[in-house]
Amino acid sequence: RVNMERKQNLYSGKAKSIYTTDKDDLLIMHFRDDATAFDGAKKDELPGKGKLNNLINAHLMRELEEAGIKTHFVEVISETESLVKALEMLPIECVVRNYAAGSLAKRLAITEGESLEPPIMEFFLKRDELHDPMINESHIATFNLATAEQVAVMKRLTFQVNSILKPLFLNAGILLVDYKLEFGLLDGKVILGDEFSPDGCRLWDAETLDKLDKDRFRRDLGGVVEAYQQVATRLGVSDFG
């Protein structure tokens, strides 16, 4: 295992911090126990959440790599930290919705849980202060957020991730309701960055439809860490060791 030391704090988001290392091309992604909702209006600290997100993310990134999706993930270096490649991040969130939930259900007055076939893909501008507004390919082109070629690659990879992870979760008795992906450039090539954990997707028990994700925090359902632990256990995520 690589012994990497945290240097400068490059960025601190809602529940993750990114640090430089003594290598220019590698960063440390630190998963914190912080939980936030409604753009930071609701906050708490949930002991154990950071560790679970780190391990679940590592497991899923490895699965995606094995299936041929290039990611920035390198390896887990501590209970709450992973080593990742430094990317030039594109300021776009790619969201796939397999079932109606959250903002889509509200926006289009669709019953929560309705199956969406084919799945819906949406783009959002990654700007916290603007509450990550929804955008389309026309906005992306006009404001030079990414090239048409980069957008095409992001779309292809986002749906490819869906075709890999949807059955993987279903085998664990979990519905992959929706999720967000972020991409960056490495040597000019678009690759998957950020993370994939119950903080950035919706996961429901396939039979009971119990929520196993951050909606438990948003909606005051309690048992957030227990739900994340259940996801980890069902996916066969091995503990840090």
Write a brief structural summary.
29% of the residues lie in helices and 34% in strands. The chain has helices at 49-66, 102-107, 137-142, 148-171, 215-218, 224-235; strands at 9-12, 16-20, 26-31, 34-37, 42-45, 73-78, 81-85, 88-99, 115-125, 134-135, 174-186, 189-192, 201-205.
How would you characterize the overall build of this protein?
The protein has 241 residues and is α+β, with helices and mostly antiparallel strands. Helix content is 29%, strand content 34%. It contains 6 helices and 13 strands. It has helices at 49-66, 102-107, 137-142, 148-171, 215-218, 224-235; strands at 9-12, 16-20, 26-31, 34-37, 42-45, 73-78, 81-85, 88-99, 115-125, 134-135, 174-186, 189-192, 201-205. The strands form 3 sheets. Strands 8, 9, 10, 11, 12 and 13 form a 6-stranded antiparallel β-sheet that branches. Strand 2 (16-20) and strand 3 (26-31) form a beta hairpin. The longest helix is centred in the middle third of the chain and has 24 residues, at 148-171. The protein is globular. 37% of the residues are buried. The mean pLDDT is 96.
% residues in beta strands: 25-35%
What is the makeup of the main sheet? 6 strands, antiparallel
Helix content: 25-40%
Mean pLDDT level? 96
**C-alpha end-to-end distance:** 10 Å
Q: Radius of gyration in whole Å, from Cα?
A: 17 Å
Count of alpha/pi helices:
6
- Helix/sheet category: alpha+beta
Shape, please? globular
Unreliable runs: none
- Got a strand count? 13
Element order: H for helix, E for strand: EEEEEHEEEHEEHHEEEHH
